[in-house]
Design goal:
With 171 residues, this protein is α+β, with helices and mostly antiparallel strands. The chain contains 6 helices and 5 strands; from the N terminus they run ββαβββααααα. It has 2 domains: 4-128, Ubiquitin-like (UB roll) (Roll), CATH 3.10.20.740; 135-171. A 5-stranded mixed β-sheet has the order 2-1-5-3-4, sandwiched between helices. β1 and β2 form a beta hairpin. α2 packs across α4 (122-128). It is elongated, with a radius of gyration of 26 Å.
Length: 171
């Protein structure tokens, strides 16, 4: 039988199995800690930096990387933790395409759930994304010119091709 560890998350006494990490223990006790990179079937890596907590008043550490310990006090939200999570989310959103209407995860997007949890609004999220640079069009290859015209100017392209075909037939 697995030994149970008793500790505290945000002042609430919780129990978890020995060897369990703080993030899994919190989630098992219906306490939400934001996270993106953690999956219960994989070894924790702490890459997303969103699951940060403070243990016994110490510096912020990743909850997915720390096993539960007897009688420790874990804080899941503080000004430092909130500021760190917000900064991480800003960096993630600055490179995110934000095409939510066409995304498969549109109704179940963890990124947007965390942004909402942190109090970020959609306008703020869109402002983080820099506009796409206007790159020069490469017309050196006729195939790419064809694709460009087909994609952006289908009607005009087809009309010009029909006129050319009509001209070829007449000559």
């Amino acid at each position: 039988m697995t030994k149970k560890i008793t500790f505290y998350i945000d002042g609430k006494e919780v129990q978890a199995e020995e060897g369990m990490n703080i993030l899994d223990a919190a989630l098992a006790n219906d306490i939400y800690i934001p996270h993106l990179c953690h999956h219960p079937d994989l070894e924790p890596v702490g890459d997303c930096r969103l699951c940060g907590v403070e243990i016994d008043g110490g510096a912020m550490t990743m909850s997915c990387m720390n096993p539960v310990q007897e009688n420790v006090h874990v804080v899941t939200d503080s000004p430092v933790i909130h500021q760190t999570r917000t900064a991480v989310m800003e960096m993630l959103l600055a490179t995110h395409h934000m095409d939510c209407l066409n995304c498969k995860a549109a109704t179940d997007c963890e990124l947007l759930k965390i942004a909402n949890y942190l109090g970020m609004d959609s306008n703020e999220m869109l402002d983080l994304r820099p506009p796409a640079p206007m790159l020069p069009v490469d017309t050196s290859n006729p195939f790419f010119t064809f694709l460009l015209q087909t994609f952006y100017k289908t009607v005009f392209f087809l009309a010009s091709r029909q006129n050319q075909a009509y001209g070829c037939q007449k000559s």
